[in-house]
């Protein structure tokens, strides 16, 4: 019962959820390229998986790419579901995609089952750093291969003389009369969500909050964020000048200086007071003394 209760802690449950997302990402495309060309009235879509497999309109796109001499990569050690051109660049590391996804997922399960809090906190830190490192390395290798493919165009292609180009992992590009958009597929979004869950688990590494308490944590976080934004906004609107004494009052302005007894009403001279002064003056004059 105790071990089951521990797995409901967010810092343990989130790595498990991230692991499930990474495994599911292997069965759907992780990357998607959309192409537009004048000879095609509708956009063409190519889906790429974490292993050597293509989906969508990859056959039509291969024909379109052949006009400029751009070919799908050769995974070398396996036979993909598309025809490999003899001038295609070799990309044997494509086979390691599932290894990376499954490895990160297995690490999440291992961390979630850590026997002590200290080992759990250390595991969450190492997993987050390692996961980010793995995906950054994957992005770097993919971008390098795209650069190589875009600068190894077939000189014997029908549209010869096309300058080399580098398709981005995410973004738009143009080559000849073809416009392309590279973006995440469903698997890519799953991987991003998995990394986000690991970040949250790392932030909660010192908290024993459970899954049942998650809505309350979200509500508090939203309220704190609103309060912080409101405070920053009020601070930006009113910024009193700071004088040399650090009081926040602008020096040299009499209207801002403190006035003693400013709120107390001043007493006005009454008729009785005037009469008293008159009698005193007359008495002094009769005695020959000058009034002071």
Give an account of the 3D structure.
It is a single chain. By secondary structure, this protein is of the alpha+beta class. It has a domain at 2-203. Helix content is 47%, strand content 9%. The protein contains eight helices and five strands, in the order ααβββαααββααα. The protein has helices at 2-7, 10-24, 58-66, 97-112, 117-150, 186-203, 214-237, 271-286; strands spanning 31-36, 44-48, 54-56, 171-175, 178-184. A hairpin with a 2-residue loop joins strand 4 (171-175) and strand 5 (178-184). It is elongated and about 65 Å long.
User: What is the gyration radius calculated from CA atoms?
Assistant: 38 Å
- Poorly predicted runs are 237-269, 285-292
Number of E strands: 5
Number of helices: 8
Order of helices and strands: HHEEEHHHEEHHH
Largest sheet: 5 strands, antiparallel
Secondary structure layout:
Elements (H helix, E strand, L loop, with lengths): L1 H6 L2 H15 L6 E6 L7 E5 L5 E3 L1 H9 L30 H16 L4 H34 L20 E5 L2 E7 L1 H18 L10 H24 L33 H16 L6
Antiparallel strand pairs: 1-2, 1-5, 2-3, 4-5
Essential attributes:
alpha+beta, 5-stranded antiparallel β-sheet, 8 helices, 47% helix, elongated, disordered C terminus
In short:
The chain is an alpha+beta fold.
């Amino acid at each position: 019962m105790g071990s089951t209760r521990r797995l409901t802690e967010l810092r343990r449950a989130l790595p498990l959820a991230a692991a499930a997302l990474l495994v599911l990402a292997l069965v759907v495309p992780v990357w998607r390229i959309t192409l537009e060309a004048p000879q095609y009235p509708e956009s063409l879509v190519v889906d790429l998986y974490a292993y050597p497999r293509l989906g969508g309109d990859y056959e039509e796109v291969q024909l379109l790419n052949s006009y400029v001499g751009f070919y799908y990569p050769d995974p070398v050690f396996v036979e993909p579901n598309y025809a490999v051109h003899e001038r295609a660049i070799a990309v044997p590391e494509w086979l390691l995609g599932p290894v990376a996804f499954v490895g990160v997922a297995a690490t999440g399960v291992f961390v979630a089952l850590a026997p002590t809090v200290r080992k759990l906190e250390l595991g969450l830190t190492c997993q987050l750093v390692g996961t980010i490192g793995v995906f950054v390395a994957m992005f770097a290798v993919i971008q390098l291969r795209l650069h190589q493919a875009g600068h190894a165009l077939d000189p014997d292609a029908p549209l010869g003389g096309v300058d080399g180009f580098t398709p981005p992992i995410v973004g738009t590009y143009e080559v000849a009369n073809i416009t392309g958009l590279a973006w995440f597929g469903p698997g890519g979004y799953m991987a991003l969500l998995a990394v986000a869950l690991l970040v949250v688990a790392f932030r909660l590494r010192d908290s024993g909050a459970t899954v049942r308490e998650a809505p309350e944590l979200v509500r508090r976080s939203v309220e704190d964020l609103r309060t912080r934004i409101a405070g920053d906004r009020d601070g930006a609107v009113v910024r009193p000048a700071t004088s040399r004494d650090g009081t926040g009052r602008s020096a040299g302005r009499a209207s801002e200086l403190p006035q003693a007894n400013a709120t107390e009403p001043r007493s006005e001279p009454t008729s009785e007071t005037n009469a008293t002064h008159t009698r005193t003056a007359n008495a002094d004059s009769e005695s020959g003394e000058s009034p002071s």
